[in-house]
Design goal:
- This protein is of the alpha/beta class.
- It folds into 2 domains: about 1-100 and about 210-254, 3-Layer(aba) Sandwich (D-Maltodextrin-Binding Protein, domain 2), CATH 3.40.190.10; about 105-200, Periplasmic binding protein-like II (D-Maltodextrin-Binding Protein, domain 2, 3-Layer(aba) Sandwich).
- Helices cover about 40% and strands about 20% of the residues.
- Strands 2-1-3-12-4 form a 5-stranded mixed β-sheet, with helices on both faces.
- The longest helix is centred in the N-terminal third of the chain and has 19 residues, at about 1-20.
- It is globular, with a radius of gyration of 21 Å.
- The model is unreliable at about 1-20 (pLDDT under 50).
Length: about 250
């Protein structure tokens, strides 16, 4: 009889644990998807909550949130959309913070194609250049800014091939559809070096800093669990992981 009681008690504890577990739905900009996968794996070592990721361009994810998509958190690739959600009372003001500052790289899958300078880009001898859609993706807008500051935009405009987001843009270059393009440094960088290919890391002064903000969605039904994950993203361990992908962390976040 004691054994039965123990089994029943154990089953009750399991049911209670499963009941307490919460599913946190996160809308994440495409550039941060790979780092976030690693962050979620680390976070779930200390939490029983299940973090579910939906990836896309910042513009499209923002539109989904505005139209009532059931996300708990928004990790954008800019500050403008999270700030607009807060202004329109669709984001929790006290939760918003800059979790990373993105970097842009002119990159090719070919190991020796691009030197660590802008010479190959300025030569304009290539047929196509991949960038993310500048209307929906902040990394695409940054790419256009770089080309304009270098005086190359008019010359290269007809060669531009647009990805819907930075993930699709990376796929174009990674699979050889286009030999070169502007992608997020985080897509090709790990632990202080390029993981593959060749590229020129674009100097920060050539484009507006890509400050990426996170915000808790006002109509979230899992606010406590979502805030817990936001708190983790601001921890020293999380920031170490974020930096390993080539992101900067704004000083006020440290």
């Amino acid at each position: 009889m004691n054994i039965k009681v123990g089994v029943i008690a154990g089953a009750a504890l399991l049911v209670a644990w499963q009941t307490q577990a919460t599913e946190v739905n996160v809308a994440v900009a495409a550039n941060f998807y790979k780092p976030l996968q690693l962050l979620v794996a680390d976070y779930q070592k200390q939490s029983h909550d299940n973090v579910v990721l939906s990836v896309g361009s910042t513009g499209k994810l923002y539109a989904q949130i505005v139209n009532g998509a059931p996300f708990d958190l928004f990790l954008a690739a800019d500050q403008r959309r999270p700030q607009k959600l807060v202004k329109d009372h669709q984001g929790v003001a006290s939760s918003e913070f800059t979790y990373a500052q993105g970097r842009l790289i002119f990159w090719s899958k070919q190991p020796d194609l691009i030197a660590q300078n802008s010479d190959y880009l300025k030569s304009a001898t290539f047929k196509q250049l991949a960038i993310a859609n500048p209307k929906a993706a902040p990394y695409g807008a940054a790419s256009v800014t770089v080309l304009k500051k270098l005086g190359l935009y008019k010359q290269l405009q007809t060669k531009l091939v647009y990805g819907q987001n930075i993930a699709q843009t990376f796929s174009y270059v990674n699979y050889g559809n286009v030999k070169q393009g502007f992608v997020a440094l985080s897509q090709v960088y790990r632990d202080g070096k390029l993981s593959q290919g060749s590229g020129w890391i674009v100097p920060n002064q050539l484009y507006t800093p890509i400050r990426q903000d996170a915000v808790l969605i006002s109509n979230s039904v899992h606010k406590a669990a979502a805030q817990s994950f936001l708190n983790y993203l601001q921890s020293a361990k999380a920031q170490q992981i974020i930096r390993s992908f080539g992101y900067d962390i704004p000083k006020h976040n440290q």
